[in-house]
Write a structure and sequence with these properties.
The structure is a single chain. By secondary structure, the chain is α+β, with helices and mostly antiparallel strands. The chain has helices at about 20-35, 45, 90-105, 110-135, 145-155, and strands at about 5-10, 40, 55-60, 65-70, 75-85, 140. The chain has a four-stranded mixed beta sheet, with helices on one face.
């Protein structure tokens, strides 16, 4: 009987080059929601007998996402490296729509904000589906967890 979930998530602080209050809020919410409810089952570690819970560290280097998986005590179990080329457009689209959303909530009508938010959710959902596809056969997770992970991947790509 395992515990296939993340209990701690860390972002490589050296990777995050720029922040603002909106981005910090997105990061905090994504991490809080992820820890509260997630499904995360790294298949190699699971099959080797390490059946959770897990600590996860995310970083980006040379156009690749590194997911470092450790056990509850912090012992490294595995690292998964994903090329981020297929995520460039969803990340760029997500940043653009988020900028529009943050501007809209300060001065737009409720209907305009709702329209932008629907577009933002659509981009986010498509990116979560792509992440699920890229993790297939490596990590079993659910859609909500993939959405939150995509948010954190975006945070790692912010440039001032």
């Amino acid at each position: 009987m395992g515990d296939a979930r993340i209990i701690q998530i860390e972002l490589d602080e050296a990777t995050i080059l720029w922040r603002n209050a909106d981005i910090e809020q997105e990061r905090r919410i994504a991490i809080f929601d992820l820890i509260e409810e997630n499904t995360f089952k790294p298949l190699r570690a699971w099959e080797a007998g390490h059946q959770g819970p897990y600590r996860l560290r995310l970083s980006v280097a040379d156009g690749r996402l590194a997911l470092e998986v450790a056990d509850a005590e912090g012992q490294q179990l595995e690292s998964l490296i994903l090329a981020l080329g297929r995520f460039r457009r969803p990340i760029r689209d997500y940043f653009a729509i988020c900028d529009s959303y943050y501007q809209a909530i300060r001065k737009a009508t409720a209907a305009e904000i709702e329209t932008i938010d629907m577009a933002r959710r659509g981009v986010h959902n498509e990116a979560a589906e792509l992440l699920l596809e890229r993790l297939d056969g490596k990590i079993e997770t659910d859609f909500a967890t993939a959405r939150r992970l995509f948010t954190l991947i975006c945070v790692l790509h912010i440039r001032g």
